[in-house]
Amino acid sequence: MLLLLLLVVVVPCSCAAAKKKTSPNVIFIFADDLGYNDVGYQGSDISTPVLDNLAENGVILDQHYGQPMCAPSRASFISGRYPIHTGFHEANIQQGELWGLDTDEFTVGEMFQHYGYSTHAIGKWHLGWRTWRHTPVMRGFDTFLGFYFCAHDHFSYDCGSLGAYDASQKLERSLRKLQKKVNRQNGLPPWSGIVKNKKVKYFDLRYNYLNSEGQLVDKIRYDLAGQYSSRVFTNHAMETIKNRKPDQPFFLYLSYMNVHAPYQAPDDDLERFTSHMSGYARRKRRNYAAMMSSIDEGVGNITALLKEEGLYDNTLIVFTSDNGANVGYCKTTSYTGENPEGREPGSNFPLRGGKRSVFEGGIRLVSFVHGPGLIRNPGRISSDMVHLVDWYPTFEEIVREYDITHIDPPVTSPKDGISFWRVLKKGLPGKRRSFLININKRGGISCGPTKAFKAIRSGNWKLIVGGGGPPNDWFHPYKETIQSGPLNYYQLYHIKNDPYETTNVAEIYPAMVLQLLHELAELEHTMVPSRKRKKEDLTSRIWNGTVPTPLQPSLSNELMYTGTVWGSIHDVDVIQVVQKP
C-alpha cells in the first residue's frame, strides 16, 4: 500500500519536471520603420487584429526602446551591446558602404547555437557584407533567406546604384540641383526639363546555408522575383518551422522589410485591408497600412501553424520595430491638404519626432511578448524600461532555465543588456534603471541631426545634449504638423509626466542636468571608434552581372578597429548558384 502511494506521488512529479525542462522555441519579429501609433491596439486606423490579440493576451512593453535608425538597432539586438561599443553610433550602413558588425562580436544567434538550438534568419540583415564572414550563416544562423543591404523594391528585390558614384554622376547631380533652383525661380515644377539617367539595378535576394561539406551555399533567388516580400518571408518562416528537427528547439529571427519605403503593396491587399480608409487616406498612407496588415496576416499564419504543430504553448513570440516611423523626411514639415508635399505615411503621434531623431518618436518602439505556456498572468502592460540590448541576456536566462545539460555560458565581450525575464514571467519589477540613448560626436546624419549630440534616460528623466533632431516636430498622418521651433542645446524632459516632450525643464532642474552629464561622461570613456566608412566603388564586386558579392577575408587587408587583420581570418569555401524561375 505504501509503495502504491509513493508511485502516485512520484510519477506526476517526474512528469511535471520533464515538462518544465522542455526548451522553448523563440520567434523574434522585427517590423521596419513602424510608427508607434500604427498598430490597432495603440488606437490606429490600421487593421492589425492578430497583433492586437497577441499583445492583449501577452505582455505589452510600454517602455521599450531602441536606436533611431535601422542598422544600429539591429546591431544592438544581435550583439546585446550599445552602438558606442560596436562602432555603430554615428549612422546607418548606407548602400555602397562596406562596413559592418565586427566579426569578433558574439551574436544572439551564436548564443542560441551554443545551447543546442537551430537558428534561422529571414529578411533584412543590414549588419554588413564586406566579407563572407560578415554574412548571417557565419554569424550564428544555420540558414538565411533575405537580403544583405538596407532597402530594395518589395517585388523585384532590386536596389539602386549602391552609392558607387563616379565623377560623371556627381556632375549630373550638380546640374540637376541647379536646374531645380532655376525651375523654382520661374514657378515651374522642380523636375521640369530634367531627365534622370537610369541607375544600375542590383538584385539582392539569396538563400544561404552550410552544406554537409562545410561550404557556404549562396543561392541567388531570381525565382522569387515578382512575389511580395512579406509573403515570401512569412512562407519561408512557415516552411522552416515545418521542416524543423522534432527534438531540437529553434530560434527564428524574422526581420520584415515592411513598412520601410518604397511604400508598396499588392492590389488585393489594398482592397482587403484598407477599404475602410478609402474615403480619407491618401494612397501612400493606404499602401503603408496594407504593408502593416500584411505583416499582421503573416504573423497570424505563423501562429496558426504553431498551434497545428503543437508548438504554440512552448513558443515565445516577440514583436517590435527597429525604430519609429520615417516622418519629416528631408522635406518641408508644414503641410496641409490631401496630398501634402513631404508627408510620409507613418505615424508616431502623439510622440515627438521620428526615425533618425532621439526624441521618443524615433526610439520608443511598439513591442509585446506572447507566450501562453511561458508567461504568468498574461494580458498586462509593463512600464519597465527595456532596451533592445536586453534581449540577449533575457533569452540566455530563458534558455539556461530550461537547459537540462547545464552547459557553461559562452565567454563573450561584456554585454550592456540586463535580463528582464522576471518582468515577463512573473510580473516582478525590472532591474534596469537607466540606458544610453546614444553618443554621436560627428553628427552629419542625412535628413537627421546635423550636429554632434548625445542623450540618456535615467529613471523618468531624459537629457538630450546638442539638439538630437531633426525630425523634432509632432507629425500627424492627417492633420497639420505641430512645429517645435529651435532646439536648445540642453533639453531635459520628465518622460512620465511629459511623454510627448513638450516642456524643456533643463533650467528648472540644473542639478539633474549635471548628474546626467556625469553619467554620459562615464559612458563616453568606454566608446570604441566608429566603424563607419565612406562609400566605395562596387563595380568590381558584382557577380553574374547583377549580384553584389562579399569578398573573401584574405582579399581585404583593412585592419579592424579591434586590431585584428582581416586577412588572418580563414577564407570561406563558397558555392554560388543561380536559381531561375
Secondary structure blueprint with pairings:
Elements: H1 2-20, E1 25-31, H2 49-56, E2 59-61, E3 64-65, H3 70-79, H4 83-86, H5 108-114, E4 118-124, E5 143-147, E6 158-159, H6 167-185, E7 202-203, E8 206-210, E9 216-221, H7 229-242, E10 250-255, H8 267-274, H9 283-308, E11 315-321, H10 360-363, E12 367-370, E13 380-382, E14 386-387, H11 391-402, H12 421-426, E15 434-440, E16 453-458, E17 461-465, E18 490-494, H13 510-524, E19 542-543, E20 547-548, E21 574-579
Parallel strand pairs: 1-10, 1-11, 2-13, 3-14, 4-5, 4-10, 9-21
Antiparallel strand pairs: 2-12, 5-8, 6-7, 8-9, 11-12, 15-16, 16-17, 17-18, 19-20
Helix pairs in contact: 7-9, 8-9
Question: Characteristics of this structure?
Answer:
21 strands; 4-stranded antiparallel beta sheet; 16% strand; alpha/beta; 581 residues; 13 helices; 11-stranded mixed beta sheet
